[in-house]
């Protein structure tokens, strides 16, 4: 593989990484830890431990990226979180 081909391959890999979107969950004063954890398990396929860690980060930092992927995969997941009364957006 030539140097030029390798450079093009690396550029394509970088573009694929950059296309990843994120669901960011925001803190609120309404929802309980249990509700947030249950919602993350349901909507984002988190393990209970992962959901608990995200809920703690959201509580103390104000926000947390809870899922990364393509926009088409994240849209219905974000909608489920919003329907559960959580504050989330895709970035």
Describe this structure in words.
There is one protein chain. This protein has four helices and three strands, in the order H-E-H-H-E-H-E. It has helices at residues 3-18, 33-44, 48-61, 71-83, and strands at residues 21-26, 63-69, 87-90. It has a three-stranded antiparallel sheet with strand order 2-1-3. The N and C termini lie far apart (36 Å).
Helix-strand layout with pairing:
Layout: H1 3-18, E1 21-26, H2 33-44, H3 48-61, E2 63-69, H4 71-83, E3 87-90
Antiparallel strand pairs: 1-2, 1-3
**Main β-sheet description:** 3 strands, antiparallel
Order of helices and strands: HEHHEHE
User: Structural class, judged by helices and strands?
Assistant: alpha+beta
- How much of the residues is beta strand, in percent? 15-25%
Q: Characteristics of this structure?
A:
19% strand; elongated
What's the gist of this structure?
The protein is of the alpha+beta class.
